[in-house]
Amino acid sequence: MDEVEVVVAHSERATLRVGDVFLKVDADQARIDREVEAMSRAPVPTPEVLWRKPPVLAIAAVPGATLGRLGGPSTGSSAAWAAAGAAIRKLHDAPLPPHAGLAGRSSTALAAELDAECELLVTKGLLPADLVTRNRQVAEAALRPWTPVFTHGDLQIAHVFVDGDEVTGIIDWSEAGQGDALYDLATFMLGHEERLDDVLAGYGTDIDLDVIRAWWSVRSLLAVRWLIEHGFDPFAPGCEVDVLRSRM
C-alpha cells in the first residue's frame, strides 16, 4: 500500500498524496467549486478530477516534473521555460471566467492591505524598516489600471509541470479568476529572475518589467508574516526575504 505524503498542511487547507492521487481537503466548499470550474475552463493541461466528496477533492497526478521551486535551482531547458510562457499566454488569452480571482484585487484595496502589512512587519520586528520601505516604494508600480484576463492566481513555479519541452499540467487553481496578467507572470518567475527572457520569449508580447518587479515586492511583503505564522521559512536562501533584499 502506498504511503500517505503530506504535501502541504495549514489551517486553511491540506493536500495529501497517496500514490498518483492527490486529496485536497478544504472546508471552504465555494473555493473547491471555483477550482474545479477554473480547471474545466482553462485551455491548458490540468489535473483530472477523479471524484469529489466535500470537503475532499481527489485529483490525478500530472506527468512530468516542475521547473524548480522557490529557493531552489531552476531546471529545464530554455525551450521548456518558453513553453511555460506560451501556456501562460494561452490562459491569459482565454475567455474570462465569471468571478474575480486573487490576482483581481483592486489597486485601492491592495494598497490598503499592503500598507497595513508593511506596518505590521516593522512593528513586530519581522523585517528592517528600510527593507520594507524600499520594497513598498517598488511595489507602487503594480498599483495601476490593468485589463482583466483569465489568471491562475497562484502560479508558483512548483505548480507548472513539464516533460522535456512540453507543459504537461498546471495544478492548484483555487485562486483562479479574472485578474492582472503580470501578477501571474511575476508569481511564476519569483526568485528566478534569470529565466525572465526565456519565459517572455514564449509569452510573446512586450512586458513592463518595472511592474513585474513591483509584483515581486508585493507578493513577498504580503507573504512573509503569513509564512512565518504557518510554519514556513521566508528567510531560507532564495525565498521571499532574499527577493525583497534584491530590490535594495
From TrEMBL:
Transmembrane segments: none annotated. InterPro entries: AGP_Transferase (IPR051678), Aminoglycoside_PTrfase (IPR002575), Kinase-like_dom_sf (IPR011009). GO terms for molecular function: transferase activity. Residues 21-210 form the Aminoglycoside phosphotransferase domain. It comes from the Bacteria. Keywords: Transferase. Pfam families: APH. This is Phosphotransferase.
